[in-house]
């Protein structure tokens, strides 16, 4: 039997990682893992349990307590913490504002990386894993590595549309740029493109075009290794 296919999709917020990863996984018959949702879930748990998310020692001390369980169906991605379905609440502005601080704490990262490698190892046909450090740190031997980019203005416009215009594009862009800087500047496993990743700028592409390009890149890679 062929080895499982591992596709790593990294990049900053709003570049299309989730939409692309789900569609690529569905097209190729692979599992799907949203690692950003896992960092959001543990952040939700910290906020819900009154942990000061700006105190790295308090976050580190409690990082091992939350039990995060991620579904890997690209058509119905779900996530729970301690048995509570948090698929919706992890998208709140409060969680979004706190997630970079929580995900910078090494104890949080080591626990999440353990979950992520276990999910990849148990995906029979293979998996599409999206995040910030999948190609560099979590799954450096991935079959194909893609790094999605887009201009800050395009990303902010996409996010603002998602929020039905309740937050202005300017405020969204400012928050997004701040999170990019925190995610790229942290010591442990920052947001970065792997040396052997292929960059796809999605600013001027439709989602279908991005998906087709990524599927073609995966098929190209498979043709060389199989
Ligand atoms: N190529 C694209 N063109 C236009 N809109 C897109 C494109 N890719 C994604 N989107 C939209 O942009 C928003 C952010 O996409 P998402 O996949 O959540 O990005 P990420 O996971 O990188 O944060 C979503 O509302 C999505 O529908
Ligand atoms: N592999 C990952 C994935 C996400 N993170 C952190 C950093 C990100 O700002 C948050 C949230 O990620 P998520 O992919 O949900 O963010 P967006 O939906 O793209 O805005 O989690 C990380 O540190 N490492």
UniProtKB/TrEMBL annotation:
Annotated residues for binding of ATP: 11-19
CC per GO annotation: cytosol
Subcellular location: Cytoplasm
GO molecular function: ATP binding; dCMP kinase activity
UniProt superkingdom: Bacteria
InterPro entries named among the record's database cross-references: Cytidylate_kin (IPR003136), Cytidylate_kinase_dom (IPR011994), P-loop_NTPase (IPR027417)
Domain Cytidylate kinase: 7-219
Cleaved signal peptide residues: none
Keyword flag ATP-binding: yes
E.C. designation(s): 2.7.4.25
Catalytic activity: dCMP + ATP = dCDP + ADP; CMP + ATP = CDP + ADP
Pfam families, alphabetized: Cytidylate_kin
Keywords: ATP-binding, Cytoplasm, Kinase, Nucleotide-binding, Transferase
GO BP terms: nucleobase-containing small molecule interconversion; pyrimidine nucleotide metabolic process
UniProt record similarity statement: Belongs to the cytidylate kinase family. Type 1 subfamily.
The name this protein goes by in its record: Cytidylate kinase
Protein species of origin: Actinacidiphila cocklensis
Gene (name only): cmk
């Amino acid at each position: 039997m062929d080895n499982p296919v591992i596709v790593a999709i990294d990049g900053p917020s709003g570049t299309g990682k989730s939409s692309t990863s789900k569609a690529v996984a569905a097209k190729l018959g692979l599992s799907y893992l949203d690692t950003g949702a896992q960092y959001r879930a543990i952040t939700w748990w910290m906020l819900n349990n009154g942990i000061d998310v700006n105190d790295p020692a308090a976050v580190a001390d409690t990082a091992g307590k939350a039990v995060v369980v991620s579904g890997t169906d690209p058509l119905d991605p779900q996530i729970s913490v301690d048995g509570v379905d948090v698929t919706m609440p992890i998208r709140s502005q409060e969680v979004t504002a706190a997630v970079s601080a929580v995900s910078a704490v090494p104890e949080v990262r080591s626990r999440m990386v353990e979950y992520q490698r276990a999910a990849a190892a148990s995906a029979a046909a293979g998996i599409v894993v999206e995040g910030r450090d999948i190609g560099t740190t979590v799954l450096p031997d991935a079959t194909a590595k893609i790094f999605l980019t887009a201009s800050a203005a395009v990303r902010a416009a996409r996010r603002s549309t998602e929020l039905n215009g309740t937050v202005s594009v300017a405020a969204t862009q400012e928050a997004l740029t701040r999170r990019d800087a925190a995610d790229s500047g942290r010591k442990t496993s920052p947001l970065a493109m792997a040396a052997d990743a292929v960059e796809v700028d999605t600013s001027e592409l439709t989602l279908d075009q991005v998906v087709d390009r990524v599927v073609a890149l995966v098929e190209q890679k498979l043709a060389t290794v199989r």
